[in-house]
Structure formats: structure tokens, C-alpha cells
Inverse folding.
């Protein structure tokens, strides 16, 4: 995580102080469960909670101990014992390091997912508001970057809304899948710890027991979690690229809000660059990149190894913080997006009506002309407009083959923009449940 692309709420989840506090809670809940089972004194469990809860877990002190022990969990337990005293002998009873590390990691991932879900909510609200605002704002739809047929800007935003609504569902599934707890001891057999301890800790930490932990929680869960973040990042990039293209000088149908005092270029005072959406494209690449090591972490040796550990120390905070930042940045872009309906209409009319070519083709075939002949007649007039400009409708009216099949009035009716927007309400009801 770097501060530039990290919001404070997400940074808090990954701070060492938070991690050590979660470690303590896992150990203390385990002690409570053991006391309830009569495995350790009830007074000892209460004292662990009392002294540990009041203790200021000193990150610098834990790091100092780790420099000697070369083991992070042992360093933490040693420091905790400095606060708890003799009753510390009942801490970590039958547990192994992965019980604490993996359960904590999943707690952090669940909390991160909740922040990401909130970011998606903000983005979805912005997309819905702007979609209804521009529900009837006609613009040109493009395929291969080339003018195709009319659509509305509201439909463009409705598409993005539907995509991010799917993203929220995927994130919820990934959150549930990664929200497991392992308190099963060495190689996951529960030989030295009662499975009921795991059940107690899981419930207390808002998790579910891992069915088979083999000392570590299986990393296919984490691979799906980070892959889901990568897919969400790709959706962010898709919308960001759309905005970047629409902001091009030759298009200028929409642009990022340019604030008072903002500078677009150190050399050219006139520049208004799509810097936010370009930034989002770069951030999306990073989030996707974190998915690969998560997938590679699935294949570990036998019951466990720690080849995944170093990767997760980075990809956990980095992927979640980067996506959290990106979601909120994109929401801000959509909230303040400047839209130019007049430019949309101007661009729509640039090709002299060629965007209605399919309607003419279909009308000719319905009038009895073969598809091959109809395509030839329409295309030769369209190519004339492409090469030399002019008005497509006028050319069609003077084409001997077309004019003998379709009257001027019939041709004019084929150039009605309303034909292309007649099902906007249907699309909106499908996406938003209302029109």
C-alpha cells in the first residue's frame, strides 16, 4: 500500500496494531472456549481477557523480539505474556501459528470486502442517478470505435450499473467463501485442541469453521477472492476507458469535471486531460496482477508450507486498498461527470444519416428485395457519403433501384431516431426495476 492510493478506512484494517489486536482476540476467544470446556481455569481465561484488552500492544517491541526469535507469532505471544503474566501459559494451548495467522487474514479480508461493498454501493448510486438523468439523451453507439446506431447515454450508464451490480453479488460470494476460521492445531487434526474451540472462535469472530484446514485454510478460497477483485477492476477499467474515449477532443461528448485552479499540463495551459480515468486504468492493471500470485498460492506442499505467506503480506493490503481507492475515485468521476448532449447530437449527425442504414436494408428486404441486392443498393450509397460526404437520405431518394421500391415518405420514416429508443423503458425496468 502506498498512501497516494490508500483510503484511511482500508489502511486501518491492515495496520500492524489491528493485526495484533485480532491475534489477541483469537487467542482470548480460544481461551474462553477452553475454560468453558474445563480445559483451563475460568479465572485464567478472564485474566487473559482483562489484561490483554487493556494492554497496548507495542509493535516496536514485537518487532524487537522477532529479530531474535525469527518468528512473528512467537514474538507476539512473548510480548503478550509480558502483559498477562503467569496465566500466559494458557494462551495458544494446542494452537499452531497458522490457526492465528489464517483466521486473522480472513477476518481482515472480510472487513475489506465490507468496505469494497460500500464503495460499490456509492458507485451504483451515482450510476443510477446519472442514468435516469440521461435516459433519453440520444447519442451514437459505436462498434469497433466506429459509428453504429443510435442509443442513449442513459443506456450506456445502465449497462455499467448492471455490470457493477453483478460485481457486488460476486464480492458477496467471495466474502462468504473466504470467511472461514481454522483452530485445528498442527496438520489440522485437532489432536491437541477440541474442535469445539474452533466453533466458538469462529462464531465470535464472525466466521464459519473450515471443514478441513490441514493446518492452513485452503488457498482456493483466497484465489477466488482476489480473482473477484480482479474482475471488478476490469469493470472499472471498462467504464474508465469509455469515459476517456468520450473525452477525446474530436468526440467531447463527456468529460471529467475540471475544477477551479486545476492544471492539465505543465507545458500547455489549454489541456484538460482525463487524468482520473487514466489513473483508474493503471490501478485496474495492478489489482488484476495481484490475482495471479493468489492462484499460484493454491498449490502448497502436503499439509502446509509458507510459500504463500510472503505473497499474501503484499497482495492482501495492496489489492484491497487499490480497489477500494479505485471504486471511490470512479464514483466521484461519475457523480461529477460533465455531459454534452449537443455534442452527442452533432456527432450523431456527422455521417449524414448513415446510422440508419440497417433500417433501410430491412425495409427493402421486407418489400421483396433479396438481402444481397438490398445490401448492395444501400452500401453503394453509404460509401458515397463516406467518401464525399452528403446526405444519405437524399442519395437514397435518387437511387433508381431504391426509389422504385420505397417511396420518399417511406424512406423518411426510416430516419426517425425514436425508433432506436422505443425500448429504453424496457431496458431500465430490467436493470433498475423501474423506468
Amino acid at each position: 500500500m502506498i498512501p497516494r492510493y490508500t483510503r484511511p478506512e482500508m489502511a486501518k484494517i491492515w495496520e500492524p496494531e489491528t493485526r495484533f489486536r485480532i491475534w489477541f482476540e483469537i487467542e482470548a476467544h480460544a481461551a474462553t472456549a477452553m475454560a468453558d470446556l474445563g480445559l483451563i481455569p475460568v479465572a485464567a481465561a478472564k485474566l487473559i481477557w482483562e489484561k490483554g484488552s487493556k494492554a497496548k500492544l507495542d509493535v516496536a517491541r514485537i518487532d524487537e523480539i522477532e529479530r531474535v526469535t525469527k518468528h512473528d507469532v512467537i514474538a507476539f505471544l512473548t510480548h503478550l505474556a509480558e502483559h498477562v503474566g503467569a496465566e500466559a501459559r494458557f494462551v495458544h494451548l494446542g494452537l499452531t501459528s497458522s490457526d492465528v495467522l489464517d483466521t486473522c487474514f480472513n477476518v481482515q479480508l472480510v472487513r475489506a470486502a465490507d468496505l469494497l461493498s460500500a464503495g460499490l454501493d456509492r458507485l451504483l448510486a451515482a450510476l443510477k442517478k446519472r442514468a435516469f438523468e440521461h435516459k433519453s439523451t440520444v447519442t451514437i453507439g459505436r462498434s469497433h470505435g466506429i459509428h453504429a446506431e443510435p442509443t442513449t447515454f442513459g443506456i450506456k450508464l445502465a449497462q455499467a450499473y448492471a455490470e457493477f451490480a453483478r460485481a457486488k453479488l460476486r464480492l458477496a460470494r467471495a466474502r462468504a467463501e473466504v470467511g472461514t476460521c481454522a483452530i485445528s492445531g498442527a496438520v489440522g487434526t485437532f489432536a491437541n485442541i477440541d474442535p469445539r474451540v474452533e466453533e466458538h472462535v469462529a462464531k465470535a469472530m464472525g466466521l464459519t469453521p473450515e471443514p478441513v484446514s490441514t493446518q492452513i485454510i485452503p488457498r482456493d478460497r483466497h484465489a477466488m477472492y482476489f480473482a473477484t477483485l480482479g474482475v471488478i477492476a476490469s469493470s472499472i477499467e471498462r467504464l474508465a476507458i469509455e469515459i476517456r474515449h468520450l473525452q477525446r477532443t474530436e468526440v467531447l461528448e463527456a468529460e471529467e469535471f475540471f475544477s477551479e485552479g486545476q492544471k492539465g499540463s505543465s507545458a500547455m495551459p489549454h489541456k484538460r486531460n482525463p487524468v482520473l480515468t487514466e489513473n483508474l486504468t493503471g490501478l485496474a492493471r495492478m489489482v488484476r496482477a495481484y490475482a495471479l500470485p493468489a492462484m499460484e498460492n493454491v498449490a502448497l506442499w502436503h499439509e502446509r508450507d509458507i510459500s504463500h505467506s510472503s505473497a499474501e503480506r503484499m497482495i492482501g493490503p495492496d489489492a484491497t486498498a487499490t480497489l477500494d481507492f479505485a471504486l471511490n475515485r470512479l464514483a466521484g468521476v461519475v457523480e461529477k461527470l460533465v455531459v454534452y448532449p449537443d455534442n452527442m447530437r452533432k456527432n450523431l449527425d456527422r455521417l449524414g444519416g448513415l446510422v440508419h442504414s440497417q433500417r433501410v436494408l430491412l425495409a427493402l428486404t421486407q418489400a421483396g428485395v433479396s438481402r444481397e441486392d438490398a445490401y448492395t443498393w444501400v452500401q453503394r450509397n453509404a460509401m458515397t457519403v463516406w467518401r464525399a460526404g452528403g446526405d444519405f437520405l437524399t442519395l437514397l431518394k435518387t437511387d433508381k433501384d431504391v426509389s422504385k421500391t420505397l417511396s420518399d415518405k417511406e424512406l423518411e420514416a426510416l430516419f426517425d431516431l425514436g425508433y432506436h429508443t422505443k425500448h429504453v423503458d424496457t431496458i431500465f425496468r430490467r436493470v433498475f426495476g423501474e423506468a
